[in-house]
Amino acid sequence: IAAIRKRYQQISSSIVDFQERVSVQQSMLDRYHSGSGYSVDANADIHPDGNDKPDSVPVYTEQDLEMEEAELDELEARKKALEARVAGMEKDLGGLLG
Asked: Does the pTM exceed 0.85?
């Protein structure tokens, strides 16, 4: 029973970590879809010194976004699997304690 409880705590904390990662990535994806946070106006890519290279503006390609979406889908699937395992453990603990 102690081992099951320990594993339950580990999985519960993992779920919280994954939820935070999903939340961060979802907000990044939402910003991308809304156009804020990643857009650059026409004059923003010209430096005051006349150089036309931006200093630290990230460039995101369609492939980058697809990779992020795939990672998001993978994390969601892992989260659901972990939640199912936690639910199974709760049933096992309920059967042992009840």
From this structure: no
